[in-house]
Amino acid sequence: MADHDGAEGAGDMELYDLRVSVDHIEGRSVCGMAPGDYFELTDSAHLRLPEGRHFCVYALASVLPFLAAKQRDLASGDWLAQDALFACPDPEERLVMRVERTCRRRLNSADLT
Predict the structure, then answer these.
(1) How far apart are CA 78 and CA 14, in angstroms?
(2) Number of domains into which the chain is organized
(3) What tens digit of pLDDT does each residue of 4-56 get?
(4) Which of 15, 64, 77, 101 is the most exposed place for a label (fewest CB within 10 A)?
(5) End-to-end CA distance of the chain
(6) What angle do CA 77, 78, 82 make, to 5 degrees?
């Protein structure tokens, strides 16, 4: 399989890059984010934000434990393979994020920690 850069066989494992975006806000936005705001997780552990944008650290903390699993192939019956929505813990805000796989990337496990 080709990796994101098109090189054949350049690695011994595959992970998905992810995009975590604000899907909707059911309450009032106290963190200054709006639907469509996002960050990307690429190359296993690189968190990227669009220039000049922010992402609430509390929303990030609520989705962070699931990202490593979402980067990997999961069994078809695994709930995490089917669920894509995650909620921020702020009860007044009720911000809901969507986690999507953007591409599959071949990596060298020896290069990762």
Answers:
(1) 19
(2) 1
(3) 444 445 778 898 999 999 999 999 988 999 999 999 999 888 999 999 999 99
(4) 77
(5) 23
(6) 90
What is the band of 113 on the pLDDT scale with cuts at 50, 70, 90?
A: low
Quote the distance between the C-alpha of residue 91 and its chain's center. Answer: 22
Where in the sequence is the domain holding 62, given as residue range(s)? 25-105
The residues, any chain, with a CB within 8 Å of residue 10's CB and separated by 6 or more, are 3, 106, 108
**Residue 104 is encoded by which pair of tokens?**
């599959």
CA–CA separation, 95 and 31 (whole Å): 9
Do the Cβ atoms of 18 and 41 come closer than 8 Å? yes
Closest by CA to 102, choosing from 46, 59, 50, 42, is 42
